Amino acid sequence: MTINLNPINLLAVVLLVSFSCFTPAATKENSTAAPEATAAEAGLSFRDIPYLHKSFIDVAPVYRKDALVVGELGVDGGNKGMIVELAREIANGDHGKFDSMLIAHKGKLLFESYYLRGRINLPHPQASATKAYTGLALGRAIQLGYLTMADLDKPVVSFLKKLDPTNFVQGAEQITLNQALTMRGGLRISEDKWKKLEEKPDALKGQGLVQALFEQSAPITPASQKFAYGNFNPDLVMQVIEAVVPGTADNFIKNELLNKLGITNYAWSTNRNSGLPQAGSRASMTSRDMVKLGTLAMNKGKWNGEQLLPKAFITKAIDRIVDTSDEEFHYGGKDTFNQGYGYFWWSADMRHGDKSYFSSSAQGGYGQQIILLKELDLQVVFTGHDNDTNYLQIVAERILPAFVQ
């Protein structure tokens, strides 16, 4: 058996618990009093956060001095009635267990809503959306000159100077950054081998994790280097970040990426094996900060006039580099098709009438979504704790039509 994580399971450790029964909540619209977590709630694990007594729906979000430009739904874009109707259905529990839904259009946050465990000031577990943020950190390293775009086609081992290639399996030394970013590294570790590796945790610290993976994987072949979600690919990228930036990857992500966006209220767990920041899951962000990260991607790597990421990098990151087939379509439905993958971002076409729109999305299990439709300059952010909701289909069927002229 090989370890091949897929996005619908990555939050299972955190969220696979018995959620309290859902009771449809009353909604509070157009109020400035967005729900905030109390000090006591902020200290709880996510699954222990109590449900809101009233859902919160705001069609004219308040400026909170967080660098997000705000506007008004219906005035600055979108069909107010269509979006409010959807929000009320979500508040009534008609679409699953949502915690927030935010919509930005043409650079303005036009709609903000919170449900159940959603709080405006509470970082929400991001699950696999963390992968997209890891990719953005790599792009920041390129922008600052610690790597180049050409380096993406170089083997990962060329950046990890502490590795000993003597006992590498066939092909391990050829895995490139590009392949790791697109889930095509080809690493395959049996569950038994992985358990044995974890019995000696000190050997997995730092680059020791890559050393072990490259020695214990099945041989890397063209057949194995096809899209396979997970399989330690994000860890390889984080290892390169750690190796090339000054200081640590943790401080680099904090100071050179998140702080640049004004993101200070967040959590980012440490990998218990390598000691580096988790690359594939276990970051937590507020919904508004998710909008910032999406805006950075939407604006081709630019934030408040400063180019934080190379345009060439973010263009590829949110593009469809790999076709992943529609056989296992994550969070899609009848109006979504052509699922693909870029640099840790998913992609899909969304159908409306006789036209389709290309979308890119950072996706995390149980409902963490940053969904971009560049043609419409439209961004939708969801958080939730429900793995059975077709979040992309909801955008295609209910939100996209509200912004098509």
What does this structure look like?
The protein contains 12 helices and 15 strands. The protein has 405 residues and is of the alpha+beta class. It has a 10-stranded mixed beta sheet. 49% of the residues are buried.
Defining key terms:
3-stranded antiparallel β-sheet; single chain; 10-stranded mixed β-sheet; alpha+beta; 12 helices
Largest beta sheet: what is the strand line-up?
1-2-4-3-15-14-13-12-11-10
**Which class best fits the helix and strand makeup?**
alpha+beta
Largest beta-sheet details:
10 strands, mixed
E-strand count:
15
Beta percentage is 15-25%
Cα gyration radius (Å): 21 Å
Give a topology summary.
Blueprint (H helix, E strand, L loop, with lengths): L11 H4 L10 E4 L9 H4 L11 E5 L21 H12 L6 E8 L2 E7 L9 E2 L3 H15 L33 H5 L9 H8 L9 H9 L16 H12 L4 H10 L8 E2 L14 E3 L1 H12 L3 E2 L2 E2 L3 H7 L4 E2 L12 E6 L4 E7 L2 E10 L3 E6 L4 E7 L6 H13 L2
Parallel strand pairs: 1-2
Antiparallel strand pairs: 2-4, 3-4, 3-15, 5-7, 6-7, 8-9, 10-11, 11-12, 12-13, 13-14, 14-15
Helix pairs in contact: 4-8, 4-9
